[in-house]
C-alpha cells in the first residue's frame, strides 16, 4: 500500500483473545489474520471477530508477559480487544502494520474507495439520489412568501463550508448576504435550517459574529432583521449562543464574540452553555476510562460518571434543544442558533430542535434527511471530528456521538414516537467511523464534490433502507399523539442514563441475557407474516369450498383428530442474508441472530462446567458469561 | 379503644388534593378508622382516593393564613398534599391522621377489620405448608427429616414449628445445638439442589465468645451433612473483623479445625440503620427534581443503594456458584440469621431453581425463606424512607431483596413468570396492607395473633385467576437453567418502578408497555388461527384425494 515498510498480511496462530473484564484472564485461542481492510480473529469455535482498520482508534503494545506479548486495540465504536500474541516478533509486526493501516493519509485510500457492493453505475447514482434536500425544503414549505432559495453560494464563493443551495429571507438581498457573511466567522452567515409551517417560525443557523469589543455590521443587522420580519407571527426573534458565556466573551479578544443586543432590533439574546469540542473529547476519554475498569465498584462507576461530565453535557445539549423548541412552539418566535464556527454545537441544537418539533425526523427516512441536512450539508467536520485521516488529534471530538446519544435518550422517554430503534443509531455511529460509505467522508460538501464521492463511493442510506426491518421499532405508532407532533422531553437529571449498548456494545457479559426488544421485534414481524398466511389460507379454503361444499361438511366432522401440520417458519426467523457482510459478522456477537438462537447459545455456555473461574480464596464471586 | 376518639374531625369539605402529575382536585375528605378517603365532587368523573393510615410514613402541616396544608408522605414513597380550609379542621385532621397512622397495637390494624369482597378459592394461609414442601424433598432424598421440636416455639422463638434437619440428628442433639446458636436458630435446610444433591442451610452465629467455646453437637450436625470427600462453604455475611468483634458480645464464628470439610468465606452485607439511611438518602435524591447532573449522580452514589444491591446480589451468586459450579454444600449465617442470611439464601434459590421464578414458586419462597424463617417484617417495615424515628430495627432488607430480584428480572426478562408489578405489589403490602400476611415478626407472633383465623392472606387474593393475570409476564417461557446475573455496575439499574414512580409522568412508558402486550397477545391469536386454517386446508386436501381415489 503506501509502502514505507511493507505490510505483512500474514496469519498468526495461537493468539489469545482475552475477556476484557475477566479478572481471571479468561480467553479464547485462535488465529489472527491481517487483510487489506480488516483485522480478523477466528477462535477455536470458528467464531469470527472482524475489526475494520478505520475503526481502530489506538493500538498499544503492553510489556511482555510469560504468556506472550499483549496487544490492546481500541476502536472508535468502543470495542476494546486485548490480544496476547505468543511471539514478540509477530506482535511487533502486527502492531506496526496496524499503525500504518489505521492511519490513512489520503481520502482515496479509505475503504469507501475500494468497497464494492456489486452495484452498477445507475444503482450507485440512484442510491445517492435517495435523499434529496431540495425536496426536504419543499416539504417544510419553502420557498414561500417569506423565504427563498439564494444562489449566492452557488459556486461556494461566499462560504466554502456551506452547501450550494441555501434558503434566506426574501428581503435579504445579495449585498446583505455578502456583507453579513463577511461579519461572520468562516463566512457562515445566517441561513434557514428548519421552517415550521404552522407557526411560520424558522430555525436559522450561522457562526459567531466578528464583533470583537465594539465592531458592528449593518448588513448583518439587516440580515437578522430580515429573519425576524420573515416571521409574521412574532416580530421578536431569539439569538441562541450555544456556548458558555465565558467562552463567548473570551472570543471577543480575538475579534469574534457575540451579538450586542443594542445593535440588533427585536432580538432576545441567550447563552445556553454547551462546552466546546476539547471539553467533550476529554469527557468521553474519562468516561471510557471509567467504564473500561476491571472490577469496578458501583461508587467508582457513579463518581467516574459524574467526574467525566458526560451526562451533564448530554443534558446541556438536550436542554438547549428544549429551549429552542419552546421559543418556536410556544412563542412562535424564530430562532437563530450559533456557536463559534456553527458546525458542532449548532448542528446538535438545530437538528435536535427539529427532531422534537417535526415527527418526520422520527421516521427512518426522515432521520437520514435530518443528518444529511444539518450535519453533512452544513459542514459538520466529520473527517476531522472522527479522525478519518491521520490529522490533528485536537480536532477529534464526539459531537455527533452526543447527538445520537441525545436521540437515544428521547427514544427511551418516548418509546412509541420513533420509527427507528437503537440498532439504527448504533449502525449509523458504526458507519460514521467505518469510512465504508461516502456520506460522511470529508468535512464539507465542496470537499466531497472534489473527491467525486458520488462516482467513486456508495451512499450508506439505501443500504440501511434495504435492511430497515432490523431498524424498525416494533412499538412505533405513527399516529402517536397526533396533535402532539411536538415532543416535550423531561430533562430532569435522573432521566439520563449511561448508554450501555453504545459504550459496551461488544461486551456481551454486561447486557441483559434476554432481549425483550428483540423478541417483540420478531413477534411483530411474525405477526405481519401470519396475517399474510391467514389471507392466503382463507382464499385457498374459499376456492376449495367452492369446488365442493360437501367436502367441507365432512371435513368438519373429522376435525376431532386433526393431522398435525407444522407451522411454517416465517421468514423472519431465518437468518437474514446480511447486506453488509463484514459489519454483520462483527455484530453476530451482539445479535443478528434470533433471540431464541442466541439464548440457547448462551445457555450452552452457561451449562458448561468452568471450575477454574471460581476464586473463592478472596471471597469474590466471579460472574461469568 | 374506639377509633372515634381519635377522629376529631371526621369530614372536611372544599379540600384540594394535589398529587404528582395530576391536576389538583377539589372534594371532600373523610377519615375513618383505617382510611383517609378523598372524593371529588365532580359528578362526571368522580375520583376517589383511599389511603390506608398504615401507609402513612410521615405528615407535615403548614399554614398560610387560615388555609392549612397537610403533606402526607407514604411508605410506598408517594407524596400527596391536602389543602384544608380552616385552621382548626386542619389541625384536627392532622393530629387524627398522626394518631391513626401510628397505632401501636397490631390487633387494631386494618387486616383485623378487613372483610374481603371476593370469594376465597384457596386459603393462602394453608397454601404453603412445610409438610407439602417436604414431600417433594423426600421423593429426592431420604437424608432429611421434619422436626416438630419447635412446635411450641420454645427452642427457637423466631423459627416456625416445623423445620427440616438432617435425618441422622435427633431432637435431643438439636436442642443442644440451639443453645449454641444465637436466638436458638440451629442449622436448618433451606434448599436442596436436585442437579447434584448439594444443599444450602442457614443458621445464626455460633456463640463461641472470646474463649472460643465449641459445641460438639453443632459440629456433628454440620459435618454430618457432607459425605466423605465432600466440601462445604460457610458463608458469613459479615466481614472478618465484624465477625471477630462479635466474639466480644458472646457471638463469633466456627473455628475451621472443628469443621474440617468446611471453608469459611466472609462476604460482608450491610444491615440495619445503614440500609435505612441508604434508603432515606436515595429517596431524597430521587425526589429532588432540581438537582443538576453532578449533584444527582453524587447523591445517587452517596446513597450507596446500588452498592448494597450489588453486594447482596454478589453474595447470592457466590452461594449459588458454590452449589452449582463447585459441587459443594453451603451454610449461610450472619449474626441473627434473619436478614442478610435470608437475602442470600433466597436469591441463590432464584438463581438456581426455576420453580422460584414462577409466581407460585416465588410466593412459596417468600413464605419459606422470609415469613416462616422469621424475618421480623413488623420491625423492619414499621417505617419507610420518610421516617424521622431512626429506630435501629427499621431497615429495608426485604425491599433490597426485591430490588435484587428486579435486577434479575431485568436481565432475564423471559425467565420469570411474574412481572415488575408483582414485585412492587409485594413491596407495598410488606409496608401497609389489608392482608395479614406481613404482620408480626415471626410465626410465633402470628400464631398468637391468630392471623390465619382473623385476617385474610395476601396469597388468597393474589392467586385468584382474575388478579393473577395482572402479575403475569407475557414473555415468560420456562427456563430450566441456572441464571447468572451480571453484577457489573454498568448492568445494575435504579429501580425506577419504585423510586421514580411518583417523580415523573409514566404515560408514554405505560402506553408502550400496553402496545408490547398487544403484540404478544396478537401473536398468540394469529398463531392459533393459522394453525387452525392449516389443519382445515390439510383436511380438505386429504378429502379431495379420497374423492379422487373413489
Automatic annotation (TrEMBL), chain A:
Superkingdom of origin organism: Eukaryota
One Gene Ontology cellular component annotation held by this UniProt entry: cytoplasm
The keyword Lipid metabolism belongs to this UniProt entry's keyword annotation: yes
Name assigned to this protein: Myotubularin related protein 6
Domain (Myotubularin phosphatase): residue spans on this chain: 127-503
GO molecular function: phosphatidylinositol-3,5-bisphosphate phosphatase activity; phosphatidylinositol-3-phosphate phosphatase activity
Gene Ontology terms describing biological process: phosphatidylinositol dephosphorylation
Record-annotated active site: 339 (phosphocysteine intermediate)
InterPro entries (alphabetical): MTMR6_PH-GRAM, Myotubularin, Myotubularin-like_Pase_dom, PH-GRAM_MTMR6-9, PH-like_dom_sf, Prot-tyrosine_phosphatase-like, Tyr_Pase_AS, Tyr_Pase_cat
Protein keywords: Coiled coil, Hydrolase, Lipid metabolism
UniProt family annotation: Belongs to the protein-tyrosine phosphatase family. Non-receptor class myotubularin subfamily.
UniProt xrefs under Pfam families: Myotub-related, PH-GRAM_MTMR6-like
Sequence positions that bind substrate: 276-277, 339-345
Claim: Ribosomal protein is one of the keywords in the record: no
Any coiled-coil regions, as ranges: 513-547
TrEMBL record, chain B:
Alphabetic keyword roster: Acetylation, Cell membrane, Cell projection, Coiled coil, Cytoplasm, Endoplasmic reticulum, Membrane
Pfam families per UniProt: Myotub-related, PH-GRAM_MTMR6-like
Residue ranges occupied by any Myotubularin phosphatase domain in the UniProt entry: 124-499
Location in or out of the cell: Cell projection, Ruffle membrane; Cytoplasm, Perinuclear region; Endoplasmic reticulum
GO cellular component: cytosol; endoplasmic reticulum; perinuclear region of cytoplasm; ruffle membrane
Keyword Cell cycle: no
Main location: membrane
Domain of life according to the entry: Eukaryota
Gene3D superfamilies: Pleckstrin-homology domain (PH domain)/Phosphotyrosine-binding domain (PTB)
Keyword Nucleotide-binding tagged: no
Membrane topology recorded in Swiss-Prot or TrEMBL: Peripheral membrane protein
Family designation: Belongs to the protein-tyrosine phosphatase family. Non-receptor class myotubularin subfamily.
Protein name: Myotubularin-related protein 9
Organism of provenance: Gallus gallus
Lineage: Eukaryota, Metazoa, Chordata, Craniata, Vertebrata
Amino acid at each position: 500500500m503506501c509502502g514505507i515498510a511493507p505490510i505483512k498480511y500474514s496469519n498468526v496462530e495461537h493468539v489469545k483473545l482475552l475477556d476484557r473484564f475477566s479478572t481471571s484472564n479468561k480467553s479464547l485461542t485462535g488465529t489472527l489474520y491481517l487483510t487489506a481492510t480488516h483485522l480478523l480473529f477466528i477462535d477455536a469455535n470458528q467464531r469470527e471477530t472482524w475489526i475494520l482498520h478505520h475503526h481502530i482508534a489506538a493500538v498499544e503494545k503492553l510489556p511482555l508477559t510469560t504468556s506472550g506479548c499483549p496487544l490492546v486495540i481500541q476502536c472508535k465504536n468502543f470495542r476494546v480487544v486485548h490480544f496476547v500474541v505468543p511471539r514478540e516478533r509477530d506482535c511487533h509486526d502486527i502492531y506496526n502494520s496496524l499503525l500504518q493501516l489505521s492511519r490513512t493519509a489520503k481520502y482515496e485510500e479509505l475503504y469507501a474507495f475500494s468497497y464494492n457492493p456489486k452495484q452498477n453505475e445507475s444503482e450507485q447514482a440512484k442510491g445517492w439520489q435517495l435523499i434529496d434536500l431540495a425536496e426536504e425544503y419543499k416539504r417544510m414549505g419553502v420557498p414561500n412568501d417569506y423565504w427563498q432559495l439564494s444562489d449566492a453560494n452557488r459556486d461556494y464563493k461566499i462560504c466554502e463550508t456551506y452547501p450550494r443551495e441555501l434558503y434566506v429571507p426574501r428581503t435579504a438581498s445579495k449585498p446583505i448576504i455578502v456583507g453579513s457573511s463577511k461579519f461572520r466567522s468562516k463566512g457562515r452567515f445566517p441561513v434557514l435550517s428548519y421552517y415550521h409551517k404552522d407557526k411560520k417560525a424558522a430555525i436559522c443557523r450561522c457562526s459567531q459574529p466578528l464583533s470583537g469589543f465594539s465592531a458592528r455590521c449593518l448588513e448583518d443587522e439587516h440580515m437578522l432583521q430580515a429573519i425576524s420580519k420573515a416571521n409574521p407571527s412574532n416580530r421578536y426573534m431569539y439569538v441562541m449562543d450555544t456556548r458558555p458565556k465565558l467562552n463567548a466573551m473570551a472570543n471577543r479578544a480575538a475579534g469574534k464574540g457575540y451579538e450586542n443586543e443594542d445593535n440588533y432590533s427585536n432580538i432576545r439574546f441567550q447563552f445556553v452553555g454547551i462546552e466546546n469540542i476539547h471539553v467533550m473529547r476529554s469527557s468521553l476519554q474519562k468516561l471510557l476510562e471509567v467504564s473500561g475498569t476491571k472490577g469496578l465498584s458501583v461508587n467508582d462507576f457513579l463518581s467516574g460518571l459524574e467526574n467525566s461530565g458526560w451526562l451533564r453535557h448530554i443534558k446541556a445539549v438536550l436542554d438547549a434543544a428544549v429551549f429552542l423548541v419552546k421559543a418556536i412552539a410556544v412563542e412562535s418566535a424564530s430562532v437563530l442558533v450559533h456557536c463559534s464556527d456553527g458546525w458542532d454545537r449548532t448542528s446538535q441544537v438545530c437538528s435536535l430542535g427539529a427532531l422534537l418539533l417535526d415527527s418526520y425526523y422520527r421516521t427512518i427516512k426522515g432521520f437520514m434527511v435530518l443528518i444529511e441536512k444539518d450535519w453533512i450539508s452544513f459542514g459538520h467536520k466529520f473527517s476531522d471530528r472522527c479522525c478519518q485521516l491521520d490529522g490533528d488529534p485536537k480536532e477529534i471530538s464526539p459531537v455527533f456521538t452526543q447527538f445520537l446519544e441525545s436521540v437515544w435518550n428521547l427514544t427511551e422517554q418516548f418509546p412509541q414516537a420513533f420509527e427507528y430503534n437503537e440498532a439504527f443509531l448504533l449502525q449509523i455511529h458504526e458507519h460514521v467511523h467505518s469510512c465504508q460509505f461516502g456520506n460522511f467522508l470529508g468535512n464539507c460538501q465542496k470537499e466531497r464534490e472534489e473527491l467525486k464521492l458520488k462516482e467513486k463511493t456508495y451512499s450508506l442510506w439505501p443500504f440501511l433502507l434495504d435492511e430497515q426491518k432490523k431498524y424498525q421499532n416494533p412499538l412505533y405508532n405513527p399516529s402517536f399523539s397526533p396533535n402532539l407532533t411536538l415532543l416535550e422531553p423531561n430533562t430532569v437529571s435522573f432521566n439520563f442514563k449511561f448508554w450501555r449498548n453504545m459504550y459496551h456494545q461488544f461486551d456481551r457479559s454486561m447486557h441483559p441475557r434476554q432481549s425483550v426488544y428483540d423478541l417483540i421485534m420478531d413477534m411483530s414481524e411474525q405477526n405481519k407474516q401470519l396475517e399474510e398466511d391467514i389471507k392466503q389460507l382463507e382464499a385457498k379454503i374459499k376456492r376449495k369450498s367452492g369446488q365442493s361444499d360437501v367436502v367441507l361438511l365432512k371435513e368438519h366432522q373429522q376435525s376431532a383428530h386433526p393431522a398435525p401440520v407444522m407451522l411454517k417458519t416465517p421468514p423472519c426467523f431465518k437468518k437474514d442474508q446480511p447486506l453488509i457482510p463484514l459489519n454483520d459478522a462483527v455484530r453476530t456477537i451482539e445479535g443478528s441472530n434470533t433471540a431464541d438462537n442466541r439464548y440457547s447459545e448462551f445457555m450452552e455456555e452457561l451449562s458448561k462446567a468452568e471450575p477454574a473461574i471460581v476464586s473463592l480464596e478472596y471471597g469474590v464471586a466471579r460472574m461469568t458469561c | 379503644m374506639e377509633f372515634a376518639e381519635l377522629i376529631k374531625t371526621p369530614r372536611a369539605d372544599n379540600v384540594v388534593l394535589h398529587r404528582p402529575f395530576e391536576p389538583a382536585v377539589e372534594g371532600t375528605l373523610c377519615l375513618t378508622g383505617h382510611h383517609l378517603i378523598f372524593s371529588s365532587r365532580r359528578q362526571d368523573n368522580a375520583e376517589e382516593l383511599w389511603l390506608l393510615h398504615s401507609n402513612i410514613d410521615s405528615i407535615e402541616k403548614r399554614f398560610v393564613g387560615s388555609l392549612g396544608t397537610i403533606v402526607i408522605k407514604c411508605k410506598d414513597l408517594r407524596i400527596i398534599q391536602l389543602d384544608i380550609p380552616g385552621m382548626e379542621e386542619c389541625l384536627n385532621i392532622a393530629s387524627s391522621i398522626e394518631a391513626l397512622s401510628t397505632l401501636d397495637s397490631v390487633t387494631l390494624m386494618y387486616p383485623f377489620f378487613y372483610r374481603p369482597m371476593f370469594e376465597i378459592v384457596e386459603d393462602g394461609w394453608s397454601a404453603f405448608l412445610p409438610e407439602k414442601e417436604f414431600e417433594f424433598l423426600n421423593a429426592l432424598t431420604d437424608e432429611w427429616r421434619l422436626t416438630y421440636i419447635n412446635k411450641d416455639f420454645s427452642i427457637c422463638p423466631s423459627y416456625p414449628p416445623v423445620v427440616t434437619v438432617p435425618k441422622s440428628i435427633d431432637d435431643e442433639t438439636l436442642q443442644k445445638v440451639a443453645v449454641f446458636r444465637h436466638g436458638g436458630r440451629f442449622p436448618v435446610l433451606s434448599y436442596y439442589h436436585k442437579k447434584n444433591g448439594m444443599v444450602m442451610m442457614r443458621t445464626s452465629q455460633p456463640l463461641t465468645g472470646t474463649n472460643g467455646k465449641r459445641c460438639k453437637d453443632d459440629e456433628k450436625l454440620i459435618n454430618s451433612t457432607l459425605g466423605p470427600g465432600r466440601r462445604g462453604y460457610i458463608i458469613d455475611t459479615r466481614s472478618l473483623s465484624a465477625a471477630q468483634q462479635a466474639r466480644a458480645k458472646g457471638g463469633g464464628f466456627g473455628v475451621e479445625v472443628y469443621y474440617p470439610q468446611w471453608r469459611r468465606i466472609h462476604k460482608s452485607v450491610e444491615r440495619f440503620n445503614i440500609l435505612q439511611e441508604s434508603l432515606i438518602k436515595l429517596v431524597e435524591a430521587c425526589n429532588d427534581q432540581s438537582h443538576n447532573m453532578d449533584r444527582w449522580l453524587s447523591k445517587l452514589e452517596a446513597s450507596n443503594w446500588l452498592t448494597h444491591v450489588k453486594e447482596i446480589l454478589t453474595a447470592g451468586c457466590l452461594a449459588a456458584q458454590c452449589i452449582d459450579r463447585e459441587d459443594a454444600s453451603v451454610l449461610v449465617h450472619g449474626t441473627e440469621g434473619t436478614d442478610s442470611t435470608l437475602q442470600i439464601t433466597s436469591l441463590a434459590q432464584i438463581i438456581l431453581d426455576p420453580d422460584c421464578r414462577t409466581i407460585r414458586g416465588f410466593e412459596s419462597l417468600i413464605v419459606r425463606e422470609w415469613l416462616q424463617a422469621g424475618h421480623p417484617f413488623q420491625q423492619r417495615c414499621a417505617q419507610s424512607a420518610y421516617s424521622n424515628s431512626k429506630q435501629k430495627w427499621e431497615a429495608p432488607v426485604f425491599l433490597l431483596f426485591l430490588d435484587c430480584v428486579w435486577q434479575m428480572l431485568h436481565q432475564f426478562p423471559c425467565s420469570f413468570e411474574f412481572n415488575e408489578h408483582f414485585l412492587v405489589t409485594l413491596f407495598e403490602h410488606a409496608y401497609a396492607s389489608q392482608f395479614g400476611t406481613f404482620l408480626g415478626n415471626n410465626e410465633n407472633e402470628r400464631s398468637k395473633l391468630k392471623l390465619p383465623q382473623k385476617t385474610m392472606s395476601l396469597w388468597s387474593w393474589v392467586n385468584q385467576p382474575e388478579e393473577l393475570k395482572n402479575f403475569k409476564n407475557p414473555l415468560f417461557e420456562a427456563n430450566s437453567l441456572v441464571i447468572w446475573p451480571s453484577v457489573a455496575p454498568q448492568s445494575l439499574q435504579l429501580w425506577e418502578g419504585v423510586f421514580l414512580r411518583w417523580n415523573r409522568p409514566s404515560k408514554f412508558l405505560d402506553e408502550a408497555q400496553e402496545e408490547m402486550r398487544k403484540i404478544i397477545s396478537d401473536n398468540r391469536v394469529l398463531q392459533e388461527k393459522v394453525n387452525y386454517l392449516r389443519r382445515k386446508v390439510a383436511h380438505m386436501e386429504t378429502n379431495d384425494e379420497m374423492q379422487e381415489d373413489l
